[in-house]
Amino acid sequence: MPDSTPERHRPHDLPLCQLPAGGIGRVMNLQGDAAFCQRVREMGFGEKALVTKVSGNSTILCQVNGCRIALSHQAASQILVEQVTGRLR
Amino acid sequence: MSSKLPSHIAPAATPGTPSRQPVYALVGNPNCGKSTLFNALTGLKQKVGNYPGVTVERKVGTAYTQHGHPLTLIDLPGTYSLAARSPDEAVTRDVLLGRRADTAMPDRIVCIVDATNLERNLYLVHQILDLGRPVILVLNMMDLARAAGLDIRVARLEKELGIPVIACEASKGTGIIDLKLAMSRPELPLSRHAWTVPAAIATAVSELQASLQDNDKKPPLIARAEALLLLTDQDSVRVAGSTPLSARTEEILRGWEKRWETEGTDWAGVLVNARYDAIGELTAEVVHTAGDLAAGPSASDRIDSVATHPVWGWVVLGSIMAVMFLSIFTFAGVPMGWIEGLMATVSGWVSALLPEGELHDLIIDGGLAGIEGVIIFLPQILILFLFIGLLESTGYMARAAFIMDRLMSKVGLNGRSFIPLLSSYACAIPGIMAARTIEQPKDRLVTILVAPFMSCSARLPVYLLLIAAIMPTDEVPIGTKVGLMLLMYALGTFGAFGFAWLFKKTLLRGAPPLMIMELPPYRLPRLRDVFMQMVERGGLFIKRAGTVIFALSVVLWFLASYPKVPDDQNDTDALAHSYAGRAGHVIEPAIAPLGFDWRIGIGLVQSLAAREVFNSAMSVIFAVEETGDEDADTGHLRDAIRAAERPDGTPLFTPLICLNLMIFYVFSMQCISTLAVVKRETNGWKWPLFQLGYMTGFAWLVCLGVYQVGTALGF
What we know:
B: alpha/beta
């Protein structure tokens, strides 16, 4: 399956679960198996999409395309984002 | 591409042709108001059933054009994409691609989207436009979109897509007439929306399309749509579903995949992102945001700050559950009395019509009594469905799953298993049917396997009787009795979670489920829809009671009544002499180590019809005269079983035996109706038999331990 390509790994990208609450991130890379990548892309977490993290540590609540999505911690840890703006802890 | 439809695949029947009633399919994302629109279009002219072979609900209704011509409307399961992941979604894909022999390929497709979230909703529409069928696009919840500061230019969208676009507020009924007008049009334009398949995969799409046309005999546009799906979802077996790919197509696909893997091209990602890019361009033209969207939290956000709070969220969920269970166990009492009265009247009529004899007994004591034993729970089940419907239509159910996910993930399940397990407290049958929404087959199976551990309402009368037998006097504080009852519920719940964990670790090992779930905005419930859904689900339950359960009851009646004994012997001897009585004797060696004798064995055998039949079996065995007063009868039965003795004169129902019997009822699989449903849901006897074996085996082991340790300690 076409997993993440090495050149797209960037050191300052962080998993969505580590984005501070209220922060906005741009999806840079999806990890995990093909089925997972397909599903999250189709739910709007495609590369370049802007995600606002609303809350959550164990289960993550975020907003993408004006729509609230809940993700398990495991799922959120496989979505790497570049922090665009937002409060820092 | 330009999806100009070639004339040779024009719809077989359109509203103008009288040959066949035109078929419309209604498609959309979950939570976009699809059911509300379906109800608004069809009213009460709906038929609910199952798609043969898969246990997905099939809803078909009749709507009428502006000129009064009937048309068939199929409500397809909600999905985010045609690249299906669950059995429900596969049905949507297969019906739209014309793969299902039992359902005609729709002539026209009505796509409904949530206007407040156009971009994500248009993804599915975009895939559907590729099919080259006439499509009507319904923008639902326009009022909410306006309130959110979104200005959607409907005329512009119509121009860009080239198909009718109807603004609508299905819950208020606005836009329905416009939609019916569009559906009544004899000709519908085909979409002229063009999007560019990324260059990296365009050649592959053409090759696959050609092969699908030539080798798999697919019509051209369907072939193109299937080629795109094969590249979106990398599990080609899943995409192909019941129509496996030809060797040539498979070969082409594998060839391209290999090549892309070497090049490092993420073809699926490229394709999905290209669609989103095309949609992004479209929405940029069509949607204008009036005002500042980020101006403060919405009402939903404010509710969510409590409802999904790590602490308050549990308090809210706990309170809602408490209210629900209190309602189930208190408000249901009155209508349950009515059902008893009604069944007594029906029995009376039948009794008057039929002469005394075998047929009379068969119908009255076998069939009707068996049906009563099940439909007596209808009020409880309707109340449960009412609550589930309210929680779903307000949007809270997704939050409950979100909160429960933290707990469920500890045993390897995700939040979606919550609703099936919750429903199982009323009855495992609707619970097991609710597991259909779980995407991963293994998670769905684990949920089905453990759902019957949740103490259903049929166990309640048994618990009540046995608790009364342990603590007969009023001197025992009520809290102790309630505590014992809650202990039984807790044991079942822990059993379910424990076995779910075990199965996920061993037999059904799989990657930890990754929950991704949309939390729709809170809405006021549409009472009409909730009510219709409640009646619909209740209807399915009654239908089953009238067929499968009637047949099972007759069989069990036969076992409990034959062979006959001479008339001078009493009922107790007759039951002891019957096949069920003999079965009690036969299983006695197996249950003796648990402290149960053959008389309890008869109760266990008869519980196969429904667990609460244990009580009536005990009434017959210990010859309790029924007075018609339920409390008095329970009291008499309690006294009778307390007085029951073993042949050596020691009491049969000691507190330890009563406790052990309750534990047996918590864990063992005793309900034939549940097994029948599991067989249907898993398409075979393997899993129901496994479930019967492991649950009953576990119950036996636990009870053996409790009894042996209990007697050793002198209880």
